[in-house]
Amino acid sequence: PCTESPLFALPNVVVTPHTGGSSAEALAAVGEVISTSTLAALRGEAVPNAVNLPASSLQARQLQALTSIAAAAGRLLAVLAPERAARFGVTVDGLVQSDIVEHVVGAALSEALGRWTDRRVTPVNARLVAEESEIAVRVSQDDPNPECVPAFSFEITLRDEDEPAHHVVVRWDRREAGIVEVDGFRLNSPLAGDVLITHHRDQPGMIGQIGTILGRYDVNIAGMQVGRRERARGAAIMVLNVDDEIPAAALAEITVISGIETAYVVSLPHPAPVDPVLAMTAP
User: Using alpha carbons only, what angle is made at residue 42 by residues 40 and 48, rounded to the nearest 5 degrees?
Assistant: First the structure.
């Protein structure tokens, strides 16, 4: 070991052997990291310190809260476009560390690929599976403004098309994440739970017809959001949260309503709140 050094004479320097880091507090912190990471892995959740993924600057629960919603965005894109996409793009707004971006991309891409292919896809091999499936993956940083609330815009482009077919926006305030926009329609509250989504023409009677069909099949509506791009009679979207499973027969009736373009049913996770103490450690 080193026995002489100018550092030894400095009054503001404390020198210890390597075991100096083995204090009761340090060992307790190591044990918490190991147990939290192990439990997350067993649940199939994101692990911030896995050896085959980028080391994350977020703790396990924070990372899981974000990646579970990113995975839901990928799942929603695959439901909106059951056909395998040609391009999968992610645009990041706000200042987000590159390791976090990689975890988000992996979570969303693996969930979409799990529906587009018959492969076993995880965030670890998602990019490789995308390449082998001839899906181009593009990730870009739009505005790295540290004052901006981070958002991730996911979009897919189908084969033989130039413009994106669908896109989903996830907003992350570094404590909670949620899907706040679908195909250009902004939602009043984050998308979560068992959901019916329709793209339709804005016209009288649309809400009533859908509600009547769901009522006939004993499906209870828990909440509803409606958005449109134009003042009236133009393209619109409806998002219904339901308490009961929507039968295929009910969905079939909804899709043939005059003015309905498409209708989808998808189950999405609710945003998982993060412990405020943990959130304070977020970058």
Answer: 30
pLDDT tens per residue across span 160-191:
888 889 999 999 998 889 999 998 888 888 88
Contact predicate 257/212, CB 8 Å: no
The domain defined by 60-279 folds into 60s Ribosomal Protein L30; Chain: A; (3.30.1330)
Long-range contacts of 270-276 (CB under 8 A, 24+ apart): 270/192, 270/193, 271/65, 271/69, 271/176, 271/177, 271/178, 271/190, 271/192, 272/61, 272/64, 272/65, 272/68, 272/176, 273/65, 273/175, 273/176, 274/61, 274/62, 274/65, 274/175, 274/176, 275/61, 276/175
Q: Are 237 and 197 in contact (CB under 8 A)?
A: yes
pLDDT value of residue 282: 41
Give which of 42, 74, 76, 36 is closest to 56, Cα–Cα: 36
Mean pLDDT, residues 248-261 taken together: 94
Q: Comparing 20-34, 204-218, 262-276, which segment has the lowest mean pLDDT?
A: 262-276
pTM of the model: 0.74
H or E element: which one contains 37? Answer: helix 24-42
Q: Of the given ranges (34-38, 66-70, 267-271), which has the lowest mean pLDDT?
A: 267-271
Domain ranges for the chain, please list them.
60-279
